[in-house]
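Researcher: Let's try something more involved. This one mixes different molecule types, so please make sure each is placed in the same coordinate frame as the others.
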Amino acid sequence: MQFRCLVVDDNQRFLDVARRSLEWQGLESVGTAETIETALAATEADHPDVVLVDVSLGGESGFELVRLLAARFPELTGRIIMISTRAEEDYAELMEGTPAAGFLAKSALSVRAIRELIPDLP
Amino acid sequence: MDAQRRLMAEADDIFARVERELHDGIQQRLTTTGLELELIRARLPEGDPARDDLAALGRQLREMAAGVRTLSFRTFPAILTEAGLAPALRSLARHATVPVELDLPPLRRFDALIETTVYRLVADAAGQAREHLTVQLDDLGEALRLTLTTDGAPHVSPVGRDRVEALGGTLDGGIALIPAELHTG
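Model: All components are placed in one shared frame. Result:
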């Protein structure tokens, strides 16, 4: 069985590539969302096992979405990963205190990298 | 003084915009193109010589992305706009070539001109310190007090001094007093 994944990013092209890449690696359900509002709706509707959230969502903050997801969907505790074009160390200060399970550079995105951060995925 | 502030604000805005363009535009595209390349590579049969060529191309893209990242960090501290002085100074301390000790209270957000000026003073001092730098910030309500302690006198660039004065602040040795609110007029 493969886990269900939701990718949230304001960049349509990245969402498209990320979805194709994760599907190629075997995921059957990869949803995408571009805003906080649509991400919350997609989580409600599709019950993803893991949510990948870009640090910066255009005018909105990915950190804010992570806080909202953690508050509204307790089952996602430890199941949210922040992603960014930047490297992790650029965000070390901001990662402290977020309910996210970890951080992944977009260039390192893969099913294996997600599983390494969240070992208990289906 | 207002004219000076306008010039400062415009220059800061330009650097911040270039940084955003580097990150959201160029770096984002390099990363996405790298992922697309990897997807094409993965679909080729094992032993296809094009796999190695695409891997080499992918490495070049990653090096370009790393170069853009360094350039963007040097252009403007995006974290300052996103998260304020404390996270930005902690990030600066981590990137510094000498040990930088920070003594910061919980900090509220200030006008961008004030935050950029404090950051600039610390960055200048950190860049020129030979052994270590201690940074203390105190929120005095009406003013922010920045105390820089280092081996010898802390380095303050002429532009750093100009910025403090344009904000109506004072600079004495390693101690800068900057108004916490900017009034026009």
